[in-house]
Amino acid sequence: MATGTILALSIYFLSMLAIGLYAYRQSSSNLSEYMLGGRKLGPAVTALSAGASDMSGWLLMGVPGAMYVAGISQIWIGVGLVIGAYLNYLLLAPRFRVYTELAKDSITLPDYLENRFADPTRLLRLVSALVIVIFFTLYTSSGMVAGGKLFDEVFGLNYELGLFLTAGVVIAYTLLGGFLAVSMTDFVQGMIMFIALVMVPVVAFGALDQPTQMFTTIEQLNPKHLDLFTGTSVLGIISLLAWGLGYFGQPHIIVRFMAIRSVEDFKAARRIGMSWMIISIVGAMAIGFVGIAYVQQTQMPLKDPETIFILLSQVLFHPFVGGLLLAAILAAIMSTVSSQLLVTSSALTQDFYKTFLHKAATDQQQVLIGRVSVLAVALIAIVLALDSNSSILGLVANAWAGFGAAFGPVVLLSLYWKRMNHWGALAGITAGALTVLFWAYSPYQIDGKQLNDFLYAMIPGVFVSALLTWLVSLATSTPTEEVSHLFQQVSDKLQQN
């Protein structure tokens, strides 16, 4: 590995640790500060933190690789994600921010659900926390696997060494600074990703022998690369667009909306976040598309299409700049892992430890348990990740659908439907999660295809979750006066803003 590349990556790692140390001094006095940064995030940090925690390594490797292999027909998933993220800012974010504050200053998603419905059984908190802990522990493991493979395949380091290096830095700044450290590092990582996704396709396009002939080169190689509908069907396009439905139920994304300092800041956050997202997705797709022409013209060997970003960053840039561009992949991986670690830690601390084990725990005790939980979850994830071929990765591929179906309809309906109760929410979460698991792993087939290949599990999962939430809420008791009053309080406060 070139000295310049090592220097760039060292600077990146040290910067993340420095931010964690700064955040440690700012967010250690109480649990709200440790888990939500004291609800003091500005719009820019909120937007880029949400974006960076959302866009993992798939944005810099998966999307360019898909475009390289299949061409512009892969654009539909990007369209679905952009629409979903925009509606998330518009429909969920402002009302969710107000509701979580008025509902006894809820600082986790299970906390919000219990307080929103005044659930006397505590089952809603328990079930939702279990879903978060189980799925995010596995999700975190997959991110660490990605970090280990990056160091192994790109830098020639031992897989385990790369795994421990990636995990060590993430654990350090997450454990020290909590939500503030995660959000601040996400902001920096989001900027690195943005710069990389703009620079690489622009420079690669300029490096072509005949840039104006790019489309001709691609067409000569495979005309289907220029066909928007190649290899797709109506159900296939609907399945790709349905990825956007997942945003309403992703705990590591919507927790950012709980932490912004005011509802008025959402307009600026939405503009910043959507601009960042659209440009980043277009840039990722452009890397794969320009990469087709570049590899064809230069006849440069490319073993794995998902490494087209890595190839272009190492061939076209100075080693130091190339190192910073590779740091963008680490930034994507680490920003998501740190967010998942913190959400899982908050569920263990607030929703298990304080609720069921030590109701009188002080803020200092809860912050300590929060840090211990970060370490414990990370260690479990590392153990699971030691096998680079772990079957866990198959489950993680469906985690987005699992969270989207389990929490998405429930959270949206809880914000807008006054008649909804805790039994309906419990039924929706359980039904959504189980439907996705059945759809993704059932041996049954339709037209010779596995259910998940025929239609993305998100669609039946969201439908069943929403239906059960509605039916069970209507079939059981009406909300108490306290719950109805809280709903009205939220509406009144939003009208004032």
Automatic annotation (TrEMBL):
Principal subcellular localization: membrane
Cellular component terms per the entry's GO annotation: plasma membrane
Membrane-spanning parts: 6-24, 75-92, 123-141, 161-183, 190-208, 228-248, 276-296, 308-333, 368-386, 392-416, 423-442, 454-475
Gene3D superfamilies the UniProt entry points to: Sodium/glucose cotransporter (1.20.1730.10)
Top-rank taxon, per record: Bacteria
GO biological process terms held by the UniProt record: proline transport
Catalysis: reaction(s): L-proline(in) + Na(+)(in) = L-proline(out) + Na(+)(out)
Subcellular location as annotated: Cell inner membrane; Cell membrane
Gene Ontology molecular function terms on file: L-proline transmembrane transporter activity; proline:sodium symporter activity; sodium ion binding
Keyword Cell membrane carried by entry: yes
Its membrane topology: Multi-pass membrane protein
Record key words, sorted: Amino-acid transport, Cell inner membrane, Cell membrane, Ion transport, Membrane, Sodium, Sodium transport, Symport, Transmembrane, Transmembrane helix, Transport
Pfam families in alphabetical order: SSF
UniProt keyword Acetylation, yes or no: no
Function field: Catalyzes the sodium-dependent uptake of extracellular L-proline.
NCBIfam families the UniProt entry points to: Na_Pro_sym, sss
PANTHER family the record matches: SODIUM/PROLINE SYMPORTER-RELATED, SODIUM_PROLINE SYMPORTER
Family classification: Belongs to the sodium:solute symporter (SSF) (TC 2.A.21) family.
Name of the protein described by the UniProt record: Sodium/proline symporter
Organism of origin: Rheinheimera mesophila
Lineage: Bacteria, Pseudomonadati, Pseudomonadota, Gammaproteobacteria, Chromatiales
